[in-house]
Specification:
Order of helices and strands: EEEHEHEHEHEEEEHHEH
Radius of gyration: 18 Å
Strand order of the largest sheet: 5-4-1-6-10-7-11
CATH topology: Spore Coat Polysaccharide Biosynthesis Protein SpsA, Chain A
Shape: globular
Number of strands: 11
Helix content: 25-40%
Length: 241
Amino acid sequence: MKVSVIIPAAGLGTRMGRSAPEKEVISRKQFMLLNGSPILIHTIRKFVSSPMVTEIVVALRGDDMDWAKELFKTQGLGASVRPVEGGESRQQSVENALASIKDDTDLVAVHDAVRPFVSREVIEKVIEEAHATGAAIVGIVPVDTVKQVHRNKVRATLPRERLILTQTPQVFRLKLLRQAFEKARQDLFVGTDESSLVERLEEVEVSVVMGSDRNIKITKPTDMDLARLYLALESLPLETS
């Protein structure tokens, strides 16, 4: 089974509370340093650690390509990671990367560049589920009560047991994902994640694999404090009985 992982990393990350000058790549969240290494590198390492992953394709801005290639080389990831030029949006970046994947690939996983705490166990579970069903995503059940509102008025309370908060990786058969992106392009549809594109095809039911509260998406400055804590916890030695 051949599994390609796409990591879109061409975004500006303006939610970090500051503008990101085009030539200052280090100011964007995926390149911010966490314990001395860019967040993107921590994320890539999680997929490198899994023998189920065949290749990792990182979609980058054109201005970042040479810098990132050298970064991957110095981090010892040159043989595992293939950079491609991304687009103006996440959807365009994933589509560009998708076009570069070989036709004999079985599954494609898409993962956020700023989710460095996904576990190898979750990665492999969602790959196995997608291999069996054609489409699988990672999600967690919300712990807070969720309200449906119109303007500032509550219209309904939604049952939490029927809701999930989606995470990544999201994994699909290659042909299915390409078909979903083609239809989205034809319809001028922009989705919030890859699953939303696949759901529109109405060809397969998307399965859900339970994720983890630690699989956070680093989008705000306060997330970095939590990220440092999780990284420290990962560094603790395992207890043996």
